[in-house]
């Protein structure tokens, strides 16, 4: 690990000294060809590893996070088709809904361990202990109150939040019902579980980090398929054709997307201003075009977010134009500037300000809008810029960085291309990575070379 840290540091140092067209100094590059190179577990095969990871999180991570947040008890109460956003991260697979009304109770005992209780008409399997599974709805609520009072917790976390949607899963109706059944003296013990929910969702375990590279590799491999002559015929194929190839290929692999894949193009003569937040159009792909895609998949409960660039070569070209090589290298330089600013307990706003200051001194026209990754694509944790706000983001931007958390390293740079009469090209990059507390490591490498359509 020390050797890797030294190499990464040297790579960043040399990058500042080399010409931007020279990519030999950048680290963590990786190329892909096809998703056929990777195993994709069947839906049935996914159950065992997902539940193993869940059980480990509940047994080892949850007690630590509950102690960190100072909660004696955490309640997750939801109804079928109105599930709490955190619910599916807590229950074993296969689970498709919080049937009727499902109540989960997590109680931190004196020895630090956490009881995992289910109060539900349809009992959950291990690791939950079912303490009630019969009777009507009124009896269910009375059972919940009895279990709470029996344990006498001083601080009870409930999922209500003004600012974080993922921590606001307790509906107003269920909240009122909880107040109705609890003794009055317990009302003051209820407190927002917001810090616990965010930490639970953002914290990655060793077991998750072991499988995450495979998930990101699948996303990048399908992009490599799409940005090839297997899919694209210049002068015929449209950007929508490529987007739908991505969507249908992921469906073929049983890899759900969390947004519709997006593909756009830039070309000489189609203006891209230096201050435009976004450059790109849809249409028929022609030779000489620059292509961009944005895709996100979820697999084994973990989500990715990836943006990469391709070039459609002219018939008389043997390689990528030097201007585009320099543009991508500038994008890689921007990535290194951003990730070098990741420090434990530094807020997202502080990371953003520090990175933008360096890019400005380096003369790089950059925009940063990075975000955490995990059980959802736009996960909770420190927001590091927004595409429409390159200044501080209230609340989410104030959240600090923790070790062993995952991020989409996302943003763009603009570069003037001599080959396009100094017209700007926008290089939009995004790669899934994790922060181990000392450095940012790309989960499946990053793009250092252009995808080529010949």
Automatic annotation (TrEMBL):
Superkingdom of source: Bacteria
Keyword hit for S-adenosyl-L-methionine: no
Keyword Transcription: no
Signal peptide: 1-21
Domain Peptidase M24: 218-414
InterPro entries hit by this protein: Creatinase/aminopeptidase-like (IPR036005), Pept_M24 (IPR000994)
Keywords: Signal
Pfam name, any one: Peptidase_M24
Protein name: M24 family metallopeptidase
Natural source organism: Rheinheimera baltica
Lineage of producing organism: Bacteria, Pseudomonadati, Pseudomonadota, Gammaproteobacteria, Chromatiales
